[in-house]
Design the sequence.
């Protein structure tokens, strides 16, 4: 069956995120079912979420980070593989997922270039418990995103994605046209020092990620419209079933 996760809140666990503890307190107050964390191991957030029965899923880009998060008691790992939108790893899902499955018994969620029902079916076939899809839902009627952002996703493809550490201090995938729009040479961006990671003010340049420089995964070639979420989910389900049927015929 096509799996859809319940309501979740994403928390960037870095010292420059000056809203972290305040936001987490709000999550505890309202007993948010799922907390998604990233960067440093989130021990105190795990404890807070578990106090009311919440779950914590942690973004990781390699096995080293995955093991650190598992030691902190997270309920699941989100494997952020090559081609994911925003902050992304460099490993193939074929490599990272299979290595993590060797030792981790919690929930494993796969992300990176997942943009249609075929991608979801492929993620589950690899052994993931869930497929994690982000960019495709930006180009929907309900998404609270700039209309120019949505249109750029519709008009772009994988070749229009740039991997750069400039904007936040760690590598992320961004839409090249949005970088050019801010007057920068998207093909010759300087690398940032990892010590300059900045999530409090939104980035390291006058053009702020994610306000001015728009993140995107590589799996955008199939985005041709901005439907309602309901219509998109119906389409994804049909594609998922079609993919499963094709798998069974091979």
Sequence:
């Amino acid at each position: 069956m096509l799996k859809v996760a319940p309501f979740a809140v994403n928390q960037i666990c870095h010292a420059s995120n000056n809203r972290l503890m305040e936001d987490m307190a709000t999550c505890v107050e309202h007993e948010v079912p799922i907390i998604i964390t990233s960067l440093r191991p989130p021990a105190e957030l795990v404890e807070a979420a578990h106090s009311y029965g919440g779950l914590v899923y942690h973004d990781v880009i390699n096995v080293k980070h995955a093991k650190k998060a598992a030691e902190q008691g997270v309920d699941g790992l989100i494997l952020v593989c090559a081609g994911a939108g925003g902050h992304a790893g460099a490993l193939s899902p074929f490599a990272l997922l299979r290595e993590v499955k060797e030792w981790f018994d919690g929930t494993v969620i796969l992300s990176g270039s997942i943009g249609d029902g075929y991608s979801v079916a492929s993620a589950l076939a690899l052994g993931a418990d869930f497929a994690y899809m982000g960019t495709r839902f930006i180009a929907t009627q309900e998404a609270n995103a700039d209309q120019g952002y949505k249109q750029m996703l519709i008009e772009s493809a994988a070749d229009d994605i740039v991997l750069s550490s400039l904007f936040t201090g760690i590598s992320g995938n961004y839409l090249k046209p949005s970088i050019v729009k801010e007057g920068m040479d998207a093909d010759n961006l300087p690398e940032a020092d990892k010590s300059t990671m900045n999530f409090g003010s939104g980035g390291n340049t006058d053009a702020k990620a994610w306000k001015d420089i728009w993140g995107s995964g590589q799996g955008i070639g199939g985005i041709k419209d901005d439907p309602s979420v309901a219509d998109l989910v119906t389409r994804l389900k049909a594609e998922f079933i079609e993919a499963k049927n094709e798998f069974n015929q091979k």
Remarks:
- Strands lie at 8-13, 34-39, 55-60, 76-80, 86-87, 107-111, 130-132, 161-164, 172-175.
- Confidence is low (pLDDT under 50) at residues 1-6, 11-16.
